[in-house]
């Protein structure tokens, strides 16, 4: 079975985000970019399925700017077999919406015919939490979101999902879309020998037009602002004073 | 010229940054750095698994890199995390071993199976190898070493030491298994050792290895300079964060222009240092490349001291405390100046090589 | 303009708090029709009919609609979509599972985790883990939105909407429920509790996390945890408060031994009153706290529990 893993290039999760002064968005110029952490977990899971003999080829896909090639190299260095880069914009500040991404991915799925698509549950930039579900709808495939355990057995997969109030286990028919949550696994580091091997793995470059998908946004960004700051509070000297203040505030 | 890292180097740097960031916080580092064997075996195994030790040796000699640029990428990240793992000693030993056909031993070191250090320096000797006093003499088919070695970086806990000693043909290299060492932690953490040799039997690797030794030491100096750049930028980040947070007279320190100027000066120093490391890396192995190394080591020695003093000044008292990471970065930067020749030694080396060029 | 609101139904019961908060958000958009879907949903539909501001309730009961499976519920909503301009839900894991699927079936974008309604097409939502707030205007004919409940007050009771029963759409039969592992607890549910007491890495161990639980029980509060505490194994996964966990906005939030990473702040900074107890006075949590106590939690928490 072939596994397809879409990965997104996003601002590194350790970088402090700065809103641009003109309110047009978040400043991404000269900022360290990395693979979306949830997508890294998806790549890791695909590799583990391959190591367990349940997947025989892993194809990583990224859709966005040309620089996303580096993100794909990371996926290849971790253990993906080949990569497809779909250049959909030249502007590093442009975010391709999940709907357009899902349409491009659908076209790629039609071509590649994978048995499983593993993706991150959300990207840490737009926090939309939608691509996997949308792709699943467009393909008419089964979907299992927020996975914390993935168990593929022949024509079905048992997925444990993190839902409000606990965990839910469902069984989905293959082919399926699985979106992964934080605790599914700990992604491996790309070792230097594997980084060198990754250089020789194939990376195809395509454009959104190759798939006939219009990527123009449905949502227009009106403005982007810093969140409202909370007013500074006070420091209390003792537990007694804390209780007194809480009573005054009517909180207890 | 494109000064950005290549894709591979970017990936290598990310891997190391993540690995060290996830597994190596300052408390863990401080505990390891000052307790024998002055490093953490599981971290060392982790670095070996990631192929980072292999990055110090070229592919044809069994490694995964080995260029001056590979080494500077690795050490800059080590500096950023203030890593006390014995990479410098391993780099020096690996380079001379791989220069002398010791493929099996190189392979063992790269895989993390064994660890080695290089004994060159002596109490009365600095950069100038001709001042070396330790000797090696062959008696009845056995090489015997005499003399004292100091500042053997990363030697505590290592499986063997490669010793440089004078032979009749020049500066030879000798292989010493299970050496008896006098071990200590450096003032900034990490292991170092002295070695006293009295008719100590050793295996001869080379009778005259001066070129190989000089090249290994110069790469070690580039490594130290890159490590310093990493440590400086981490220290700068800490300092700027502190200035933005700490309030005095009802406002943050960062709002005072005099302090902004000092922070900018620190940033300029870092950029200078980064540039000179790039130049030393680019010229390594070229004729006269050793001059770029000495220029870098000299500038970084001075800038490192300045950075550590400025950061302590800008922090105030907390900048000196054991609990605050900044203090350890400051110590490391001062120590780097003293390793493999300090700013004065390298100024002298520049004068000497400059004079030689004039004569030639 | 009509709004279709997917009620949060769990095990046949209406999650009143989440649904009522989403009703408040939806009222700003037009006439609210609530859809209660589930294996059994009639009781939930009746409960939803009593929420003030709901004009109509649709009840769809079918075995295929149970157990939060996305495909049948999304198909049902898509089949109803013709009559509505807005399709909305509270931003629970169930709705986040279903609504993006609905949006794609309708060929429109989803707007997740909206925190404010500007007008019928314009919404605010947090991006970058709450480090920025983006105002987005949709050009789609239909808008599919999940609302972050922490940002809206619950609509009151007193409504008397008509209830209509509808049938489910065809079940595509793609997935099946196997089992639930629900954390059993007598404490209030984390996302709707009036008071939350959370512990962080500073608590130090799973055993000492009992300190947090004792204080929570004294206050009648839900228990939360920072990601550091969850990763260290002191607390269960589903207690995690933060961008990648639960987003809460109780009347009172007590953060114990939590340094206040941005990740965590994004999940609790809309709380009405925030108390921080931490021995590190430089901890960022104090910057958002209304009342900060610099103290060793092992002294302060038992004292607080005893004196309350």
Automatic annotation (TrEMBL), chain A:
Keyword Electron transport: yes
Gene3D superfamilies listed in its UniProt record: HUPs (3.40.50.620)
Domain Electron transfer flavoprotein alpha/beta-subunit N-terminal residues, every copy: 23-215
InterPro entries assigned: ET-Flavoprotein_bsu_CS (IPR000049), ETF_a/b_N (IPR014730), ETF_b (IPR012255), ETF_beta_N (IPR033948), Rossmann-like_a/b/a_fold (IPR014729)
Described purpose of this protein according to its UniProt entry: The electron transfer flavoprotein serves as a specific electron acceptor for other dehydrogenases. It transfers the electrons to the main respiratory chain via ETF-ubiquinone oxidoreductase (ETF dehydrogenase).
Quaternary data: Heterodimer of an alpha and a beta subunit.
Protein name: Electron transfer flavoprotein subunit beta
Protein's organism: Pelagimonas phthalicica
UniProtKB/TrEMBL annotation, chain B:
One Pfam family hit: Acyl-CoA_dh_1
Keyword Flavoprotein annotated: yes
SUPFAM superfamilies: Acyl-CoA dehydrogenase C-terminal domain-like, Acyl-CoA dehydrogenase NM domain-like
Single GO MF descriptor: flavin adenine dinucleotide binding
Family recorded in the similarity comment: Belongs to the acyl-CoA dehydrogenase family.
EC number(s) stated in the UniProt entry for this protein: 1.3.1.95
Keyword Ribosomal protein: no
Name by which UniProt lists this protein: Acryloyl-CoA reductase (NADH)
Domain Acyl-CoA dehydrogenase/oxidase C-terminal: 214-331
Essential cofactor(s): FAD
Residue span, Acyl-CoA dehydrogenase/oxidase N-terminal domain: 6-107
UniProt keywords, alphabetically: FAD, Flavoprotein, Oxidoreductase
InterPro entries: Acyl-CoA_Oxase/DH_mid-dom_sf, AcylCo_DH-like_C, AcylCo_DH/oxidase_C, AcylCoA_DH/ox_N, AcylCoA_DH/ox_N_sf, AcylCoA_DH/oxidase_NM_dom_sf
TrEMBL record, chain C:
Keyword RNA-binding: no
GO BP annotation list: fatty acid beta-oxidation using acyl-CoA dehydrogenase
Top-rank taxon, per record: Bacteria
MF annotations from Gene Ontology: electron transfer activity; flavin adenine dinucleotide binding
Transmembrane regions listed in the UniProt entry: none
Pfam families: ETF (PF01012), ETF_alpha (PF00766)
Statement: the UniProt record of this protein carries the keyword NAD: no
Keyword annotations from UniProtKB, A to Z: Electron transport, FAD, Flavoprotein, Transport
Binding site for FAD: 201, 226-227, 240-244, 257-264, 278
Cofactor note: Binds 1 FAD per dimer.
UniProt protein name: Electron transfer flavoprotein subunit alpha
Organism (species): Pelagimonas phthalicica
